[in-house]
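Q: Joint fold for the lines below.
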Amino acid sequence: MTAATQADQSQLGEWLAAVARGDNSAFEQLYRSTSSKLFGVCVAVLTSRSDAEEVLQEVFTTIWRKASQYDASRASPMTWLAMMARNRAIDKLRASAGERAGAPIEFAEDIPDPSPSAMAGAEAGDDKRRLDSCMDQLEPQRRKLIRVAFFEGITYEELAQRSGSPLGSVKSWIRRGLAQLKTCLER
Amino acid sequence: MSTRPSDIAGEPPEGALTSAEYVLGVLDAAARRSAAARIDREPAFAAEVVDWERRLAPLIDEIVPVPVPFALWPRIQGALGMAPPPRRGESSPWQSVGLWRWLSAGGFAAAAASLFALFIATRAPEPTVVPPPPAAHELVAKMTQDDGKALFVVTIDANTGKLVIQPLDVNIPANRVAELWIIPAGDVPHSLGLVDPQHPRPISIPAALQGALKAKSLVAVSLEPPGGAPHGAPTGPIIAKGEIALL
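A: Joint structure:
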């Protein structure tokens, strides 16, 4: 997170608290500040735009009703919101399984994965830099699969299909990659 | 369930990473439902899920915001039984503060004349890129990064539907390409193709997008994998954006 978005985070937290008290205008401000990002999260997972709109609407009605469940000690406001949007989008994707036609996943080792930290550099927050540096330590296949899985929310089966790798290998790569990430991040 | 460090250093036992798999989103429908049910009844599992969400959350930074269709906010208000405020009727389609930040960050109040001066001053040594004197229907957009630094200038001849994107001082990371997008008011980004970070590039606008070549449309450049965004929507960070204005 950049310094600017950290300031935004505390503003978002205030709005969430106000929404929990039934404050309409805080809800509108929250919508205006976060909807395009959350829509981006939905669109990344759901290739159908109307599905993404439906999910975003569901997310904001949930926020209105359940803002009181937000626990600042467990997650930043944006993490809570984005993960809620992601989860709803993935649920929707599972419900409409089979319609997605994703691009093949290539494990080209000479093409390092987009590490936006290379571009953002000083802009990226500490958490992002730490995660990027732990991701960079993973074998390219594990890193690639974890990234595609995160952004597209697709199953082991689809990852196996699209990468042309055996399902067992894909599961093992991802699980080992996740375990490595956890160890690295806890260091 | 526990995930002791000794377990996860080698081959993680089956089931030891279910919380991570749930958060990553790789479980199939049935396994996902059963994990979701565990969140509700197993506090320890729920806590693992929160931990994994926190670990992976920084990846969200990479997701590019996408303008939300204007009609969605009234729909949400309707679904929640809130009366839309009266001013809503004439509200700008730029319902997103994110977009407003885009625009204000660029300081778009800059007068067209100074844009033009910037354009010439930056590239004066290369006569070929000095644009012809502005004709009627000439449109221009200064594309800036978040700190206001100008990265590209776009000029559009609305009569012919030709657009030229001129890089000013642009560094594109290796293995990434710059892709240009146009975002008509209230619409989603449409790709206008890849951008050369070193040289001005003329771009022919497809007939379907000619209508977008007008003041108030946005243009943006995102970083994409080689070959460009795979699904027709931006996937990488936006490095520059600006609003089209009459010169």
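Q: Anything notable?
A: The longest helix of chain A spans residues 24-45. Chain A touches chain B through 75 residues (CB under 8 Å).
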